[in-house]
Specification:
The longest helix has about 55 residues. A hairpin with a 4-residue loop joins β4 and β5. Strands 2, 3, 4, 5, 6, 7, 10, 11, 12, 13, 14, 15 and 18 form a 13-stranded mixed β-sheet that branches. The protein has a three-stranded mixed β-sheet with strand order 1-8-9, with no helix packed on it. Strands 16-17 form a two-stranded antiparallel sheet. It is built from five helices and 18 strands. With about 375 residues, the chain is of the alpha+beta class. It is globular and about 90 Å long. The N and C termini lie far apart (about 125 Å). The protein folds into two domains: about 300 residues, Carbonic Anhydrase II; about 60 residues. The chain binds zinc ion (ZN). Zinc ion binds next to β7. Zinc ion (ZN) binds next to β7.
Length: about 375
Amino acid sequence: MSCRMDRLLFLILAQLLTTATCGTDPDSESEESDEGDMPDHWTYKDQDWSKGYKLCKENSQSPINIDTSKTTFNNKLPLIIPEGYNIPETEQLELSNNGHTVKLSLPDSMSISHGFTQKYLANQLHFHWGSATSSGSEHTVDGVQYAAEMHVVHFAAKYGNLIEAAQKADGLAVLGVLFQVGAQDNKNYNPIFDKLQDIAAEDANVYIPGFDISTLLPDQLYRYFRYDGSLTTPPCFQTVTWTVFNETVQISQAQLDKLETSLKAAHGTLDSNFRHVQPLNRRTVFASFSPLPTSRRIVPNIDSNAPSEATKSVDDDFTLGDMLAALFGILFGCTALAFVIYVIRQRKRQRSSTERGQKVIYKPAATMEA
Ligand SMILES: [Zn+2]
């Protein structure tokens, strides 16, 4: 009995690895179930996954809508520091179409620890996207769904591997990056996007030379949202510490088109591989920064003439600029107040000395008249 349960668990976890914590082909519904009574297929078209995977209807599911007005500022969430992300060219990384997403396998020499309570090692990254007619990010911010989303999946080093860690409460850490369409190609993504046509067929794979994976992340790694959630695919383990960066990354429309149309799965184009947002319930979404109402996280729909970096300094400028302005304003105010007080005192002193002077002059006159 116990062995059977272990085997079932193993099969679930094996599926977790192959689905890369993310999507499946929305059209694949006819896969034979050969794993006993455990449903082994699910689709994005019918997301009522809890029939086969009970955890999928639990209270801490992902993705979620991040309502920035309800986030809680937490000053103990520091800058995320990717370590070992610059992979040498001599190292080959597997890029594959697993029928659910495009997945880039990552070496566990890559890690993150700053900004977390423990060390997490990288395993893979993958993407979620929409279609020609719809956006495809999983997380939404203030109700806005973005063009696409990248997940960089890490597992807690202390558990040794992804399978072991995936079922532990603090086992996984995923970095979420939201995409917007900008005017220019984002060349940092070329190593991946240029190879999509070579892995069009389901289960196809190629090897690409290592490159600096950190260039795929936004610049502002100190501004992010943090909450406890789940895998966004069955079996929906609620073991993910989510980090969703505030700053988006821009890719061109041509690059987004490639992502949305290049890959095939068993029943057609692999697209719209995103899960719908789940209820927040009683969870708190923390922000590593104070998301002031006037501090826009993203420049909404990018001016086509704007450089791709247009969004990147908005928040910085606001915060730093305003802090400096406030500081100098206070200093100026204090100086001005001190000056006014000084002037008033000087005038009083002059007046009283004038009055004393008049009395001095007056007395002799009185004396003379007396
Ligand atoms: Zn994912």
